[in-house]
């Protein structure tokens, strides 16, 4: 049974293992497995989980294993305080099982109820139609094309900028 909870600093090690696993499953993420090794560790992840004013993460567990993660961030600057950014990673073994849907709902509810955001942005690869459709289901709209979102294996890859307006 899948359980979703807000991530705490003590969860840094399981989040790190999740990121290592999913970064090896797909190119749809912002980081490769090599990038996770190079730029992240349990301490950096734990530090990010200490400040619920600028970052909040929700993790989906099945048994004791993280199978999904959604991270909502915002800049703590007055001119940016009403907008957030979202990223999602789901273990490929759990795609199409509602995990991403449930995690997105949690993050969006937090954005509304706790941070009172007016909008949420996210980037997605143009070819990631599964994710684009999921985001549209939650009210995100494509607001722009990104000719260069990422460089994957030496190849520049296009993306979409998506936005969800929130009426408070």
UniProtKB/TrEMBL annotation:
The keyword Transport does not apply. Keywords: Acyltransferase, Transferase. It comes from Lentilactobacillus raoultii. The keyword Acyltransferase applies. This is GNAT family N-acetyltransferase. One of its GO terms (molecular function) is acyltransferase activity. It is an enzyme of class 2 (transferase). Residues 2-167 form the N-acetyltransferase domain. SUPFAM superfamilies: Acyl-CoA N-acyltransferases (Nat). Gene3D superfamilies: 3.40.630.30. Signal peptide: none annotated. Its EC number is 2.3.-.-.
């Amino acid at each position: 049974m899948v359980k979703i909870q807000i991530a705490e600093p003590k969860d840094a090690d399981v989040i790190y293992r999740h990121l290592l696993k999913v970064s090896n499953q797909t190119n749809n993420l912002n980081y490769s497995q090599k990038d996770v090794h190079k730029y992240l560790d349990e301490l950096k992840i734990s530090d990010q989980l200490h400040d619920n004013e600028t970052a909040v993460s929700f993790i989906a567990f099945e048994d004791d294993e993280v199978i999904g993660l959604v991270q909502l961030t915002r800049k703590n600057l007055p001119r940016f305080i009403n907008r957030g950014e979202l990223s999602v990673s789901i273990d490929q073994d759990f795609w199409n099982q509602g995990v991403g849907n449930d995690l997105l709902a949690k993050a969006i509810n937090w954005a509304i109820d706790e941070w009172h955001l007016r909008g949420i942005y996210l980037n997605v690869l143009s070819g990631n139609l599964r994710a684009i459709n999921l985001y549209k289901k939650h009210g995100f709209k494509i607001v722009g094309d990104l000719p260069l979102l990422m460089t994957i294996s030496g190849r520049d890859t296009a993306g979409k900028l998506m936005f969800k307006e929130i009426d408070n």
